[in-house]
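User: Fold this, then the next.

Assistant: Folding the first:
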Amino acid sequence: MCFVVTKSFLLTCCLPIFLMGMRYYFSRKVILHYLDCALHTDMSDIEQYYMKPPGSCFWVAVLDGNVVGIVAARGNEEDNTVELRRMSVDSNYRGKGIAKALGRKVLEFAMLNNYSSVVLGTTAVKMAAHKLYESLGFKHVGVIEHYALPGMTRSLLERMFFQVRYHRYRLQLREE
């Protein structure tokens, strides 16, 4: 289509490279802003956000003296749920059952503290993450299209080149 409109081979060849470059730029920009927001909110003071509030906790997976994974749980007394948050495993240690063990730790915590369900939200694009949650018993309950990550400006260019789907999962532990 570009060639039909412009009659230029050079422009037709350069356009995909330009578009991929814009996609890379805006993806990187959004992700770096998101990480900056995380590092200046809950991850800047893990004790305050996850250790002090009742019904919340934070775990670290250590292997051979190295931190290889983390996960947090944040209780919500209003609806008697606990949210699984910040699950992450070092890419060099994925596929070894660490994420599953961390997820089970949150489920155990929720049961010991009499929560009725565990919820989580993820923007993960890798199917392995979704399969992990389902293997732990979570049910997919919905998707929010064009989700805005913390730190996103939602500018027109940002929306054109970077879109996020936010998946919600729930595991009912007991009826209320």
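Now the next one, as you asked:
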Amino acid sequence: MDAPWVGRFLVLLLAAAAVLTLSDGFSAPAGGSGEDGWSMQVQAEVRGMDGYPVVLPCTFSHPQHSQHSLLQVMWRLGHGSAAAVLFRCTSRPGAAACKPDQQQDQRYRLEGNPREHDLSLRINGATLQDNGRYYCRVEVQGREHVSFEDKMGTRLRVE
């Protein structure tokens, strides 16, 4: 093998790895579009008042999204292994609402409708302890299980 051929091969290999990473639905930035057709819009920062409700906006689009797919929505505080799942719900085809997990904290509820690509989260009675960075995620389950989450997050500042 000559050196120029090896260099070109490595560049192609890295490009292929980047495309595969994008196709798993996890790498498009908040407010941007993934090469696989996903897009997600969140606000960089939301301010709230102590004791009042606050809404964290999050919308998405997906070219193969079908009204016949099972959707799972998740909101986390923090990122990575230390993240706390604050809200999770499942939207079944034909159902009017996204059904939250049974042990769901009642302060959190979905303000948006996942069937209309709106995953906005409402936090009732926000407190200073709610300050932090929140991340929304959606999973579309069908022929192929795909998921997407924003990577930038929304910073909540409660004053």
